[in-house]
Amino acid sequence: MSLLPPGLGETVTLRHRASIDQYGDPTYTDSSISVIWFDQKRVIHREGREDVLCDAFCLTEDTTVQENDALTRGGVTWPVLNVAITNGYLGMSLRVVNLGKNQA
């Protein structure tokens, strides 16, 4: 059973931050996840930090998305600012993935 309505989601590439290479740059592993995408600017709050403007966000059931990962949609990559977990129906939950400025 899924909380994402059939036909409403789309598949994007999750670029999960795996490690740091010898030059101090992050390395990533790629996988596909299903999301509902929203292109909308909004303010998000981080505990102990200033408010950050979010350029887009998405909803997903994928449990592997984390802060410092990235999502690629239509050839454009967006950094993951943070992930908030919502309580869902019958114990299922959705993750709200807040995304920063795209790296077009």
User: How many structural domains can be distinguished in the coordinates?
Assistant: 1
| Strand adjacency order, main sheet | 1-2-5-8-7-6
Strand element count: 8
**CATH architecture type:** Beta Barrel
Largest sheet: 6 strands, antiparallel, barrel
Shape: globular
- How many separate helices? 0
**Rg computed from alpha carbons, rounded to a whole number of angstroms:** 14 Å
How far from one another are the termini?
Answer: 35 Å
Structural class: mainly beta
Helix content: under 10%
Mean pLDDT: 85
Indicate the CATH class: Mainly Beta
CATH topology heading: Thrombin, subunit H
The sequence of SSEs as H and E is EEEEEEEE
Low-confidence stretches: none
Task: Give the DSSP E fraction (strand runs of 2 or more residues).
Answer: over 45%
Helix/strand layout:
Elements: E1 10-20, E2 26-38, E3 42-44, E4 52-54, E5 56-60, E6 70-73, E7 76-87, E8 93-99
Antiparallel strand pairs: 1-2, 1-6, 2-5, 3-4, 5-8, 6-7, 7-8
Question: In brief, what are we looking at here?
Answer:
The chain is mainly beta and 104 residues long.
Task: Describe, in plain words, how this protein is organized in 3D.
20% of the residues are buried. By secondary structure, this protein is mainly beta. It starts with 9 loop residues before the first strand and ends in a 5-residue tail after the last strand. A hairpin with a 7-residue loop joins strand 3 and strand 4 (52-54). It contains no helices and eight strands. The mean pLDDT is 85.
Key words describing this protein structure:
Thrombin, subunit H, mainly beta, 8 strands, six-stranded antiparallel barrel, 104 residues
